[in-house]
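[job 0417] fold request received: Electron transfer flavoprotein subunit alpha/FixB family protein
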Amino acid sequence: MVEYDPTEYEIAELGPKIKDIDDADELREMLDLEEGGEDRVPVKTLIEDRIEKVEDEGDGEVDPETVDLASLTVADVANMVRDIDDADVLRDLLEREQAGEDRKTAKSQIESRIESVEGSDEEAGEVEYVPPEEKYPELDHPTNDKQWVEGTVGAEYRDMWVYCETQAGALVDVSKEMLGKARGLMDTYNEDYGEDERVVAVLIGADASDHVDDVIAYGADLVIYHEDDRLERFRHQPYSEIFCDMARAGGDLAAEGREEVDWKDYHEPRYTVFPATNNGRDLSALVQGELDSGLASDCSGLYIENAMISNPAKVGTAGDKKEFERVLHMKRPDFSGFEYSTILCIDKPNRDFHPQGASVIPGSFELPDPDFEREAEVVDYEMELDDGWFQVEVEEFDRLSGGVDLTGNDVVVAVGRGIGDDPTTGIELALDLVDAFDEADLGLSRGVITSSYSFDGHVEQYVTEERQIGESGQEVEPDVYIAAGISGAIQHKVGCDESDTIIAINTDLDADIRDFSDYLIEGDLFEVLPRLTEAVEAGDLGAVVGEVSDD
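[job 0417] inference complete; emitting structure tokens
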């Protein structure tokens, strides 16, 4: 007996319900009911897609010795080979790829893994280390005055620090998302490595203490906050100085008077995570630069694993390989427009790269459920702020009344450059469709934001960066995502790929968005959007999409 009879639901209602069903047999019963009843093509496709996903998840990991490489994307190949330590298996994969799809990037991933496992062909031998000021004496070396660049090799690093941003007196959702993700990462980390390392939440601002209970509820073990009325608005220098002072407290390079603190006894954090918001991007770069480490910006995925590396610059010996432990793998969209890159921040001889730092695109992780029964240590961090950091005083400013959060909607209607023939009308038609739904809002592609389109005043207010969806905007996971006139570059895919159902409208059937849409309607958005609006208002969207799909 199935929990949901598909014949009793429209596709927009069925989508959110079906995504929680993990029993393939139950799904097949639902498919039989639909075929014997309404027999709607889009509903059957929805159920069949879910069956395929459930069965794929149930199959477990693929067997690299028998897998059909043609059925895998390059990203799938990269994920598979990183866990293979048998060079013979890797060489067999390489030969099969060369004889089949012969994809350059796939071959490169396999070859790189072979080198990691076996080491390079270079003659073994120690790589001579020469300090930069001796190797390039003719150059200015500003890091010469930074004793921590090479003065703390092999120092102790612990914990994952999360900068929790607040705006207009509220803890922003991405801060909660990062805390939830950090909680899961460190729970697994402690179990895998037999450690007891913490999630540390950092709060800075005029009302920092107001948010302590919230960050504990969302997963923090330790909360460090600094509160000062002058920090009401984000300021680059004081915010970065405060964060770095906190990070160095109790370590070898702690500020005077903070060499020993009772809440921290290590040099610097092992990992730091920041929101990829306007302020978060600025702060993350400033902090990681001051701490002399690296930063992977605009990440959409994080996990912690060991990594086998053979690069002589990292292992110190040509032809050798070394397994680095506890490496934060930071996934981000590839600027080349092809899949994802995974960034690693790895030490090398005579040089530590800690903290390993990342900024996270809002919406990348699930918003966790708060637990207000949780307990944590709280530190009111006292620090004298330099008056010189506040030489510029902002006497007057306007604050937006709300801001735009697209992540909580059942439906998102997004438009792209396809509105170019009549931009104002394009926005109007999209807003009409938004209004036809109960919980919906308008999204935009980066192409609309960066264009020189001229909009009439009554719609111009909707064309703001806050509505941008994609790598440098918001990530949304609505039940239904309608993409009108959007080509579907990888940067946009990042922002909507987790939607339950994606309906694309495009005049080009070969547009990239075809590859990750559930339905592609060939047509002009100026003709299709009004028709969809009429269908929604009549409660018949599923039928219209099915009709177009049949066409």
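[job 0417] notes: The longest strand covers residues 322-333. DSSP finds 18 helices and 19 strands in the chain.
[job 0417] exit 0
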